[in-house]
DNA sequence: CGATAACTTGACGGCGGTCAAGCGGCGTGG
DNA sequence: CCACGCCGCTTGACCGCCGTCAAGTTATCG
């Protein structure tokens, strides 16, 4: 039995392509589970056994070198799809950044179901293409931007992500004040920097009056044009 | 009228999902064209009007900052699919690195056709997922690897890409000697380095006897284990 | 054979990484 | 309620990698 009807992401996740009967069939294959902050869900280079929809919370996708250097290669928010369908192994580790709820499926089951439901595959394709676009623009940041540019770009990105949709349904105003789901180290892993450089750049922006830092995880945008100019 | 039956990538491109009648319909919508080395095919932030299959040649996908810094975010080889279906704008510029032949479609036509042919969309999905995997592992390189590690990783990557399939159909032996489709500047744009750093690292590897450089575009792998060790 | 572009090499400096110490907020336990 | 300790973060000093600028060299093509 399922709670799909009342699911918070019912109309945004790839499931939105399915009608009542179909979603019943899909939900009978999956199950909900919670992932505590810091807890892994999928391991890099492991057999790809799981795929999932994110219902609530934020998770990071990372890859690591043998000597322990880490790079965050993606971030999954509610309604995002995670895992590697149609492939033997997962190429990224998935770890929850906040307490999270996900809707997990055995990859084999999901693959079979998806191939029988083209509308679902289409939604997944659109999502994957959009994710590839985002990933590629992040490559630009990693390969060619300086530390101040990286930080500014990141903050604007977060501000948009946590924007307010209340005013208007089509336009989402960027948030002035928001809470980061990342620690300083995780920001560093996202931007290809060290924690010290991240800290110094935050302090610099605060001193220059561009941002405020009410608490460790909170950021307030005080001078958006300045931040945009810095973003490169 | 079409030459799909004799197309060099007929069995590897996404078209391989289509039967005779279907491919006839698709090919009637598209046309072949050549793209000279250095010539662009798609522009960043332009309306996404074109998609294409690569028949022959190599193309680069790039994004640029306003002040002219460039990052190569992808490389398309024969049988690869390029362009942005199901989206209003293309987020990368596509430029031919070598003289190339492509099979182009108006995006609108392609989108409509794809939605009517789930097997084609499935192939496209598998390709996109694989490309996302590759792109993410490249993020690791851009964000966390040093210049020597980047160069070593790049050369091993190229060696695999140009491997010989003659010996065995399932296993592709990495190439000892191969010709780069990239100039030094393009290698720099791929790795997030400057042309000078690329040049110096090549020279260093040559001096150390790890590689040979018979000509500007050719590379010979002399000590693969050493290169693997350097790749990080 | 000359012109031009692509590449190499050298000198130098700055950005950001490394190492180390200090700070502060929060939770725990006395 | 306060003392303490821990962990995440900040700050400082230093330095090395790699970017910048400039000159020299080698391929390529008309």
UniProtKB/TrEMBL annotation, chains A, B:
HTH crp-type domain span: 145-225
GO molecular function: DNA binding; DNA-binding transcription factor activity
The protein's name: Crp/FNR family transcriptional regulator
Domain Cyclic nucleotide-binding span(s) in chain numbering: 14-131
Gene3D superfamilies linked to this entry: Jelly Rolls (2.60.120.10), Winged helix-like DNA-binding domain superfamily/Winged helix DNA-binding domain (1.10.10.10)
Secretion signal, residue range per the UniProt entry: none
Gene Ontology annotations for the cellular component aspect, listed alphabetically: cytosol
Keywords for the protein's UniProt record, in alphabetical order: DNA-binding, Transcription, Transcription regulation
Species this chain originates from: Novosphingobium nitrogenifigens DSM 19370
Phylogenetic placement of the source organism: Bacteria, Pseudomonadati, Pseudomonadota, Alphaproteobacteria, Sphingomonadales
């Amino acid at each position: 039995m399922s709670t799909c009807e009342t699911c918070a992401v019912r109309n945004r996740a790839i499931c939105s392509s399915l009608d009542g009967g179909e979603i019943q069939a899909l939900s009978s294959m999956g199950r909900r589970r919670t992932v505590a902050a810091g807890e892994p869900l999928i391991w890099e280079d492991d057999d790809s056994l799981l795929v999932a929809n994110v219902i609530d919370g934020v998770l990071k996708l990372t890859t690591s070198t043998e000597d322990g250097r880490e790079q965050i290669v993606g971030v999954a928010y509610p309604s995002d799809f995670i895992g590697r369908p149609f492939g033997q192994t997962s190429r990224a580790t998935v770890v929850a950044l906040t307490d999270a709820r996900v809707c997990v499926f055995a990859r084999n089951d999901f693959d079979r179901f998806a191939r029988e439901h083209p509308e679902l595959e289409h939604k997944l394709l659109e999502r994957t293409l959009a994710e590839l676009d985002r990933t590629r623009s992040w490559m630009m940041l990693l390969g060619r931007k300086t530390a101040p540019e990286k930080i500014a770009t990141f903050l604007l990105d977060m501000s948009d992500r946590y924007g307010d949709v209340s005013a208007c349904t089509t336009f989402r105003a960027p948030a002035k004040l928001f809470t980061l789901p990342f620690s300083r180290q995780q920001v560093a892993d996202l931007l290809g920097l060290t924690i010290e450089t991240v800290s110094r750049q935050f302090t610099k922006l605060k001193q220059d009056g561009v941002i405020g830092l009410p608490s460790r995880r909170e950021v307030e945008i005080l001078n958006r044009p300045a931040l945009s100019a810095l973003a490169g």
